[in-house]
Every structure is written in C-alpha cells, then in structure tokens.
Amino acid sequence: MLTLQTPLASKLSAFVALSAPDLEMLARFHRRRRTFQAGHELIHEGEKNQSAFVLAEGWACSYKLLPDGERQIVDFQIPGDFLGLRSILFRTSDHSVEAVTRIEASEVLASDILDSFAHAPRLATAVLWAASRDEAMVVEHLVNLGRRPAEIRTAHFLLELGARLRLVGVGEAAGFECPLTQYHLADVLGLSAVHVNRVLRQLREDGLVTFQKGRVDFDDIPRLTRLAGFDPEYLDQPRPFLP
Amino acid sequence: MLTLQTPLASKLSAFVALSAPDLEMLARFHRRRRTFQAGHELIHEGEKNQSAFVLAEGWACSYKLLPDGERQIVDFQIPGDFLGLRSILFRTSDHSVEAVTRIEASEVLASDILDSFAHAPRLATAVLWAASRDEAMVVEHLVNLGRRPAEIRTAHFLLELGARLRLVGVGEAAGFECPLTQYHLADVLGLSAVHVNRVLRQLREDGLVTFQKGRVDFDDIPRLTRLAGFDPEYLDQPRPFLP
Question: Which intervals hold domain Cyclic nucleotide-binding (chains A, B) (predicted)?
C-alpha cells in the first residue's frame, strides 16, 4: 500500500489540485525508499548515470566543489524536494548532494518521470513548477551573493527556509528546528564561519532572529522581513494554478 | 505556414529526437511573434499575469532590482531561450526581463504549455530539460559570485556564452559577436565596470580572450578552458537522451 499524502504531494498541491490518478502516479515516485546516514554523498558531481531522489525525511544539501577544494552550497533540500533531478536529465551530474542529517529518500528513475509525464500531464506541469521554484531559490541565493550585505543575506536565507518548511508542514511561523551548522551557513552564504558567527550575534542582539542550539527563532518577523526585503511569493501560491 | 526549424527546436533536439507532431506542437509556441526595441522591459518583477516568450532573434537579460537600486543580472537569453517561463507558473513574476538588442520573440501563454504537455509528453520532458539547463547556468553564476576570483569568473562566463551560442548555430568556436557592454558584464559578474575593464585587459594581455568592438575572440581556448575550469557538459548532450 502506497501512501498518497507525502511532503512532495503537499508541495505540488499548492500548484495543482491533484486528482486521485495523479496522486497514484506520484506515489510511484516513492516505491524505492532508502535510508542514508548523515554525511553520505548520494549524488556525485561529474559522474554519469546518477539517480534522482525525492526526500521524505531529513535535510540534504546540493553543492559544487571548486578546484582549490572550496565548496559552494547551492541550496538545502527539505522533505518534498527533489535531489538531483538535473542529474537524470543531464547524464553527467553537474553537482553533488549530501545528507545533512539521517535522511529517508526514494530513488526516482528517468523512466518514472517519463511515465508520469505521459500519463499525467498535470503532474508534468507541477514538476516543471517545482523545478522553476528550485531555480527561483537559486536566483535568490545568487542575488544574496552578488548584491546583499552579509546581514540581509543571512536574514533572507533564514526567512526562506522557514517559509519552505511551513509549506510542507514542518516548524511554525515563530521558528523551526534547524540541523545546519555555521559551516553550512558559511558555504551557502559565501561568508567565513567567523563572519557568520558575528552576523548571527548581531541579528540576535538586534532582536530579529536567534539561531542557537539547533533552532531558529524569529524574534521580530515584520522587522526581519523588512530588513531582508523578503517576499515569499516565489515559494508558494495563494491558490492552485490549475484547479 | 509555421516554421518548424526554430532555434528552440534546435536546442530541444539536443535532448529529445522530436517527431513531426512534436515539432508541430512546438511551432505553436511561435504563433504570436512580436518585435521589441533594445531596452524594452518585456517582463516586470512583482507584476501579476505576465506572459512568457520564446526568443527568436537578438539578446535579452533577466535581472532583479535591489531596494537600493542596484541590479543583479541573473542571465542573458539568446535565440531559443524562454523569457520568463517562471512568470507564467508563479502568477507574480520574480524577476524582470529586458531586451538587450532589438529582439523578435513569440508570446507563450500558460495554455500553450499545458496543451503541449497534454499532447506531447516528450516535449514536456524537453521543456523540463531546458528549465533544468537554465537552472544549471544560474548555479554556475552562483558559484562564480561565491567562489571564483574575478578573472576566472569572467573567463567562465564568456566560455559559457560561446558554447550556448554555438548550440543554436550562432558564432564559431573561435568567437562570437557580442552586444553586451561592460556594464552588463559588471551586473552579471558582481563586479564594478572599472574592475571588469581591468580584468578584460588582463585576459587580453595574457593572450586568452579579447572582448573588443562588439566581438569576443577566444585567443587560446585550451588555456582559457583550463583557467576557468569550464566543462560544457551542463549545456549540451553528446546525443539525445530520448532517441
């Protein structure tokens, strides 16, 4: 018996009202469920014939390594997100994906994607929407690195994480459990760990947000949102696009 | 009579061997062809119910404006690229698109996308591939801003542009006509125009690449590729994924 109510189904439902056959087709993405320990690299940059996964539980991160050994984290993945969707379309993966915590993820083959597109075109548009949303997040991280000062960049990133988590039913408006270290934040924000530490202290002392002991608490959401210029429109839909 | 051989069809053919019905469905994306002058803003960040376009001729750029008036260019679009595909899926556009040169572009409605997905699922996977490829380019620009020094960043960006253009039959391996100004380069590379000028002079004096008088000439492709760590794998396919 396959579960139809998965985080991926919740997320895609923000875009498309999924019919019973759509949900059954989507449930097939969850057939090959596996567990990976924290630190396990699921997808390897530069390798061919990689699988993609749908994350069901835990946190992962996608990144690229530079020739000098430095790492740029592109994004973190939370339940309901695809891991390495590009890898199965590109033959050679252009990035790596690592488990941040112990995770549960289901392997998705290219044939699963093709079958679902052939039988459920509404699901195809929903997957295109999810991929576009991933791209929108990368664009925000690009703007973070290119044009936003360290404090605003950090605030924007934490608000985005909170909004994403709520959409799949994790955390509350006031905050969320967060397994990321200051090294993770440094590698996604293009800052040194020392700089991240200083920025987090400043944000806490300003009464805006507290990141401590594995939890992010938003202390003043309106002021933090204004500081970050954060508009969650790219993450959510006020109502499904396809009713 | 619709033309079946468009730059978009050439690009997607790298991923999927398109059948005659696929090509006819794709040709419908080109029905509403329009001309826009250089500098015209086709898609406006923050506005609802925007159209998407397929670029047939000329260059465009997608960008986000920051509250302080600074601009981060996300990417440039060349013939065969979608403009604002995310805008029609997100209701509210998360970015703006402007014509860099005089352009010809065809308006694509959400219903065109949905119809094509319902009737040509192979085309749906090809559009997902094209969107994934756009995302891969944004990821490269993210890594550029986050971890690559100015000279390597510029070299990587120019090699990427050259490879993209060749895939749609523009330019040669040795170089290409380029309408971008140093201000465009500054806004995509997160550098000042003065810094871009200095970097371009250095790359030219090192015998690597010359960007002058609206042309980019690769003077030493192997050495430039090594310097940039450029691997065009994310832009092209050695053979179609779906034969």
Answer: 14-110
Q: Assess if residue A243 is contained within a domain.
A: no
d(CA A194, nearest CA chain B) in Å: 16
Q: Residue B90 is part of which domain span?
A: 7-133
Which residues 6+ apart lie within 8 Å of B6 measured at CB? B26, B27, B30, B54, B56, B80
Cβ–Cβ below 8 Å for A114 and B134: no
**A113 domain-assigned:** yes
Q: How far apart are CA B101 and CA B122, in angstroms?
A: 32
Digit-coded pLDDT (tens) for A181-240:
999 999 999 999 999 999 999 999 999 999 999 999 999 999 999 999 999 888 877 677
SS3 for A63? Answer: strand
Q: What tokens appear for B105 in the block?
A: 């572009």
The closest CB to that of B131, out of A94, A131, A139, belongs to A131
Residues B104, B173 share a domain:
no
Given B110, B133, B156, which residue is the final one in a domain?
Answer: B133
- Which among A89, A142, A190 is the nearest to B141, CB-wise? A142
Q: How many domains is chain B partitioned into structurally?
A: 2
Q: Name every chain A residue with its beta carbon within 8 A of the beta carbon of B147.
A: 66, 70-72, 190
Question: How far apart, in whole angstroms, are the C-alpha atoms of residue B164 and residue B156?
Answer: 12
Q: What is the pLDDT along chain B (243 residues), one digit of tens a residue?
A: 456 688 999 889 888 888 999 999 999 999 999 999 999 999 999 998 888 999 999 999 999 998 888 899 999 999 999 999 988 888 889 999 999 999 999 999 988 998 999 999 889 999 999 999 999 999 999 999 988 999 999 999 999 999 999 988 899 999 999 999 999 999 999 999 999 999 999 999 999 999 999 999 999 999 999 999 999 888 877 677 777
The per-residue pLDDT for range A147-168, each reduced to its tens digit, is: 899 999 999 999 999 999 998 8
User: Whole-angstrom Cα distance, residue B164 to residue A93?
Assistant: 18
CB atoms < 10 A from the CB of A82, how many? Answer: 23
**Hey, of A108, A147, A153, A234, which one would you mutate to test binding to chain B, going by the most B CBs within 10 A of its CB?**
A147
Q: A190–B146: do the CB atoms touch at under 8 Å? A: yes
Final residue in a domain of this structure, among A90, A116, A132 = A132
Q: Is residue B70 part of a domain?
A: yes
Same domain, B106 and B204: no
Closest partner residue to A118 (CB to CB) among B90, B121, B131 is B121
What are B42's two structure tokens?
């086709």
Which of B128, B139, B233 is nearest residue A92 as measured by Cβ atoms?
B233
Q: Distance between CA atoms of A232 and B227, rounded to whole angstroms?
A: 38
C-beta atoms of A143 and B72 within 8 A? yes
Residues A142 and A213 in one domain: yes
Is the domain of A124 the same as that of A157? no
Q: Does B211 fall in a domain?
A: yes
Residues B82 and B64 in one domain: yes
Distance CA(A19)–CA(A121), nearest Å, equals 12
